[in-house]
Amino acid sequence: MTVGLFIPCYIDQFYPNAAIATLTLLKKLGVDVVYPTKQTCCGQPMANSGFEHLTQGCNDLFIENFSEFDYVVSPSGSCVLHIKDHLHADKAEDKALGIRKKIYELTEFLIDVLKVEKLTASFPHKVGVHQSCHGQRGLMLAQMSELVEAPFSKPLHLLNMVEGLELINLKRPDECCGFGGTFCVAEEAVSVKMGKDRVADHLNGGAEYITAADMSCLMHMEGILRRQNSNVKVIHIAEILNAQEF
C-alpha cells in the first residue's frame, strides 16, 4: 500500500507540526507514504467564493500529483470533502473519479482502511474535541446529535486509545465554530460570536487543549483564545495520536 500525503496550504504554511505528525503516525503504522513536492492548493477557497470555474488548474495539478497512489490521505476534512465533491477534469475524468473514491481524511483512513484498534500514544491532559462541520456532516466522521440514531465518532474512538487523555464533556458537542472558510471574512461578526460560544463551551468544561480533525477550525478558535489571553491551546488530532508524553 502506497499513500500520497496531501497537505493543505494553510497547514503547510502555518501548522507544519500537524503535517509532520501525520507523516510520522502513518509511517509508525507501517504505511508507505510519499509526499508529492509539487502539490499546491486544492482550489477550495476559490470554489467556496463562487469561482469554481477558475479552479481547473488546481484540479489538473492535483490529478497529476495523486492519481497513481493506492490512497490519498490528508489531515483536513474540509479539503478532503472538497476533492471528493468537486474534483473534475474534462480530459481525465476517469482519473479524477478514481481520486475522489480513494481520498481519505486521516482519522477516516485510520478507522476504515487500516482498522486501527491500538495506539502507543500518551497525552495526559484534559482535551475538548471539536467536531468540524465538513468532517461530521460531509464525511460522516461522527454522528449528528439531531439524529435519533446510535452515536459514533471516529476521532473520539481514536482518542480513547491514547493513554492518560481525559475527554471533557461539552454541552453542544457538534456545534459549528463559525470559521467556514471565506464565511469568517464575509460575515466576520457572526463568525466571531459563534467562535466565542464554541470556545466558551470548551473552557467551561476545563479543557487544557482543543483538538479536531480540521486545523482550519482550530486556527479560528486559536485566534479567539489568544485575544482572550487564555492558556488553552489548540492541537491537531494527529499530534495527539502521535504524542509520547509520560
TrEMBL record:
Residues 3-84, 127-221 form the Cysteine-rich domain. InterPro entries: Cys_rich_dom (IPR004017). PANTHER family: LACTATE UTILIZATION PROTEIN A (PTHR30296:SF0), UNCHARACTERIZED PROTEIN YKGE (PTHR30296). This is (Fe-S)-binding protein. It comes from Pedobacter panaciterrae.
